[in-house]
């Protein structure tokens, strides 16, 4: 379900970065461990980028000299500096914010394995909870002058696809064995495999692509805040973890395998060259400080190679997720709580509205802090 990349989009970014900055960003943020070496060659004054595996005339990306000013880029979002020039009396006046409640609500939460309860306790559905956060947060931010849009404003999905309509695509992918990481199906029966993959394509691919289209073509915000609640992997028979954690994600940490996909390679370069990472780093740091002030939790630590720390902030990680890759503007994923812990579920049982308010307040404080500096 990938789209053929339009490599002419790179022309917008000619002479945007210096050679040293390009190499530094690849090594420390976007393509660690030399992950791009088979596709990107850095030469004096330029980089050569393969558009596909058989590309004998790679795309050329010109670097700018250190003393040169980069030419303007035709993007829809504004940096904090660009927005500040238009700022009025209200602290977030005119700032365009998209709130993206993660996952899907209602009965779809069962399909996504984001619906559960403990004993006679209340039912927790992540998609419904973060939608409530977004609905609580929107008027708070509007009172501060922001222009706020919810990417998903009901429990229903944004995509018009359904698992049933995606069964032919799933069957074709399984027949051709063209499954990208995250879409592997460990089921032997063919029809059950097709059904399982169709569901994954529905909520992991089609839904995210539909939201990306809404963000990039319709809303066109300055920033997207993706609202989530993490979940802990627990041993069999254990219903709640003793302790939680928090972390905040921005785009980066592409693996060699991910970079081998032409569309992901182009998206990585656009993220790097557009400078969205600067906004993401600053806002994610503000989020980590704001949540630590109201509900201090230890930072989550990734032990695999699918995410990296990109500075000294232990809460801030770079990771290549479909949404933060496809949303063209700066995008920050929030994972400030772990739902299946004694502390969170206990609070959710006693006062779900209190948790919603705490989440919304912390986001509002972080946005005001970052954009008010």
UniProtKB/TrEMBL annotation:
Gene3D superfamilies according to UniProt: Zn-dependent exopeptidases
Taxonomic superkingdom: Bacteria
The name this protein goes by in its record: N-acetylmuramoyl-L-alanine amidase
Native source species: Cerasicoccus arenae
């Amino acid at each position: 379900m990938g789209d053929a990349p339009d490599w002419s989009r790179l022309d917008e970014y000619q002479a945007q970065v210096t050679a040293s900055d390009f190499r530094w960003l690849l090594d420390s943020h976007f393509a660690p461990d030399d992950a791009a070496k088979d596709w990107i060659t850095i030469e004096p004054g330029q980089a050569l980028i393969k558009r596909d595996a058989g590309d004998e005339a790679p795309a050329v990306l010109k670097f700018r000299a250190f003393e040169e000013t980069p030419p303007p880029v035709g993007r829809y979002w504004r940096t904090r500096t660009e927005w500040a020039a238009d700022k009025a009396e209200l602290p977030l006046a005119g700032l365009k914010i998209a709130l993206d409640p993660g996952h899907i609500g209602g009965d779809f939460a069962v399909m996504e394995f984001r619906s559960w309860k403990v004993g006679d306790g209340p039912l927790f559905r992540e998609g419904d909870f973060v939608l409530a956060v977004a609905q609580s947060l929107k008027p708070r931010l509007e009172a501060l002058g922001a222009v706020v849009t919810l990417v998903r404003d009901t429990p229903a999905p944004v995509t018009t696809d359904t698992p049933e309509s995606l069964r032919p695509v799933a069957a074709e992918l399984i027949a051709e064995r063209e499954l990208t990481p995250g879409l592997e199906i460990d089921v032997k029966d063919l029809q059950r495999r097709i059904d399982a993959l169709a569901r994954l394509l529905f909520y992991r691919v089609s839904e995210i692509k539909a939201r990306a289209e809404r963000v990039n073509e319709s809303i066109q915000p300055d920033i997207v805040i993706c609202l989530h609640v993490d979940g802990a992997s627990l041993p069999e028979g254990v219903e709640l973890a003793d302790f939680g954690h928090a972390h905040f994600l921005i785009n980066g940490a592409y693996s060699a395998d991910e970079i081998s996909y032409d569309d992901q390679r182009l998206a990585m370069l656009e993220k790097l060259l557009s400078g969205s990472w600067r906004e993401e780093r600053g806002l994610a740091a503000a989020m980590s400080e704001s949540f630590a002030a109201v509900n201090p939790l230890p930072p989550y630590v990734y032990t695999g190679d699918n995410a990296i720390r990109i500075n000294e902030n232990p809460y801030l990680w770079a990771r290549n997720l479909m949404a933060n890759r496809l949303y063209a503007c700066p995008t920050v994923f929030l994972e400030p709580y772990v739902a299946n812990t004694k502390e969170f579920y206990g609070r959710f049982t006693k006062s779900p509205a209190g948790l919603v308010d705490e989440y919304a307040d912390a986001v509002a404080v972080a946005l005001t802090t970052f954009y008010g500096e």
